[in-house]
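2024-03-11 09:14:02 DEBUG pipeline.ingest accepted 1 chain
2024-03-11 09:14:02 DEBUG pipeline.ingest length=108
2024-03-11 09:14:03 DEBUG pipeline.predict start
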Amino acid sequence: MLSPDLLVAEFGNVLWKYVRAGEIGAQEADDVLSSLLQTPIWFCPSATLIRSVLEIANQTQRSVCDSLYLALAVAERTTMVTADSKLYNALGSTPLAGSMAWVDAFTQ
């Protein structure tokens, strides 16, 4: 598996929100984060993709964060799996659609 290094920050932010809301404790958040960091994921440095990310963001009017995942999929000639219906639907009729797959295709 591969992901932009942004995933770690996004994941940490979600955990922080859960702790802040009192839905989980700090130790549980740390345990979940440890599990993520032990998962065999190659984290691609965002800096290596930023030019193509900005190009995709400008062409599609999608955020830089969304475009980062898509740029990585394009660069690695693989498929980005998403559960973001807005992103998936917005790009479903563009040439980038071939670089995306809806998450259900992998969970059934």
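2024-03-11 09:14:41 DEBUG pipeline.report The helical segments are 6-20, 26-38, 50-60, 64-75, 85-91, 104-107.
2024-03-11 09:14:41 DEBUG pipeline.predict end
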